[in-house]
Structure formats: C-alpha cells, structure tokens
Write a structure and sequence with these properties.
Strand order of the largest sheet: 2-1-3-4-5
Number of domains: 2
CATH topology of the largest domain: Rossmann fold
Keywords: DNA-binding, Phosphoprotein
Structural class: alpha/beta
Number of strands: 5
Pfam families: GerE (PF00196), Response_reg (PF00072)
Helix content: 40-55%
Distance between the termini: 37 Å
Protein name: Response regulator transcription factor
CATH architecture of the largest domain: 3-Layer(aba) Sandwich
C-alpha cells in the first residue's frame, strides 16, 4: 500500500485528487492540508508516509520552503511537486531542490498515477522535456544563466503570475502578502530581467519559452 498525503490550498482540487487516488486499490491518502504550517504539523504526526504531493504555490510560504524543511527533517519522504505551471525550467528547479517528481495540475490522471507509482519504486519522475533539459545542463556548470536561476523562489512564483497577466492585487491575495510587497518583488524581477514593463517581461518569457 502506497501511503500519501496532499498539501494544496485549493479544497476542490484536493478533493478531486483525493478521490482519484482513492480509486486506486494500492493507494491510501492518509491526510491532507491547505497551507504550509498545517501541512508541516500534520507531516510531523505521520511517520509512515511514502509520498507527499506538494503544491508549489501555497499561502504565506511556498512549497519549496516546505521541501527544504522536509529535506532536513524527513529526507526519506518522497515528494512530488504540484503546480499549475507546466514550464520545464520550474520542474528542473524542483528536482534540483530534492523533489522526486514534478507534475502539472492539468496532467492526465493516468500519467499522475503512473508518476506516483514510479516515485514509490524509488525512481524520479521526469517528462521527456525535463529529461532533455537535465541532460543539457550536464554540459556546463551554468546552463541558461539568463533564465530563472537568477530569481529567488518567491520571485519565480511572482514572475510566473505576472507573465500570465495576473494583477498585483490578485498575486497578493493568492500568496497572502501585501500589494506593496508584490510591487517590490516585481521591481526586482524587472531589474533582473533587464526590462521595464510587464509587457516587456511577457515578451521575454515568450522569447525564452518560459510560458506556454
């Protein structure tokens, strides 16, 4: 039996995901949480989990922050990162941070189930595109230095939201931070990308294939 936990801040998505996993006879969803703090507390109460399905975009602190804590407290726990974004550079960052897999939320159910089974066997789940990027990164010490690598984890989250046309207010609400804080992050992102407007940032993302 593969014992799983889900941490995602969207109740409807959690509910659908839990139902899908429960339909598999060898899966058991033992717990769920909707934010970083509750998720960590619940994780600490379960010593026999096999896999954690962890959303990257959590309120207050990101899934990457929680992944970092897990690497210290429960390094044997296998983590599959969930995200609404399918861009491969984000997936590569998750794998490099210690995740065992990266799954876009619009992935087919059969593919997600296959990813869980693969990770449960001790393998890492990577799409062909991510595998290609990972192989390419071995050719030099710093692959694509102008891309996401110069951004912090939080900056990467906000970068993704900005290039998809989300307003500062929307981003602030989703991340549970102030609009002023989002504006500060936006200024840093624009500076690091060498652009001055959101439109130029979107052009940058399209040009570098960082947005679908």
């Amino acid at each position: 039996m593969i014992r799983l936990m889900i941490i995602d801040d969207h109740p409807m998505f959690r509910s659908g995901l839990k139902k899908m996993l429960h339909d598999e006879p060898d899966f058991c969803v033992v717990d769920e949480a909707g934010d970083w703090a509750d998720g960590l507390a619940r994780l600490r109460s379960h010593g026999d989990l096999d896999i954690l399905l962890l959303d990257i975009n959590l309120p207050a602190r990101s899934g990457f922050d929680l992944l970092e804590t897990i690497q210290v407290e429960a390094p044997e726990l296998k983590v599959i990162m969930l995200s609404m974004y399918s861009q491969q550079q984000y997936a590569l960052r998750a794998l490099r941070a210690g995740a065992h897999g990266y799954v876009a939320k619009d992935m087919e159910a059969a593919d997600l189930i296959g990813a869980v089974r693969m990770v449960a066997k001790g393998q890492k789940y990577m799409t062909p595109a991510v595998t290609e990027m990972l192989i390419s990164s071995l050719h030099g010490p710093d692959d694509n230095p102008g891309e996401q690598k110069k951004l912090s984890i939080r900056e990467s989250q906000i970068f993704d939201m900005l290039v998809r046309g989300e307003s500062l207010t929307m981003i602030a609400a989703k991340l549970s931070i102030s609009v002023k804080t989002v504006s500060t992050y936006r200024s840093r992102i624009l500076e690091k990308r060498g652009v001055s407007t959101n439109a130029e940032l979107i052009q940058y993302a399209v040009r570098n294939k960082l947005i679908d």
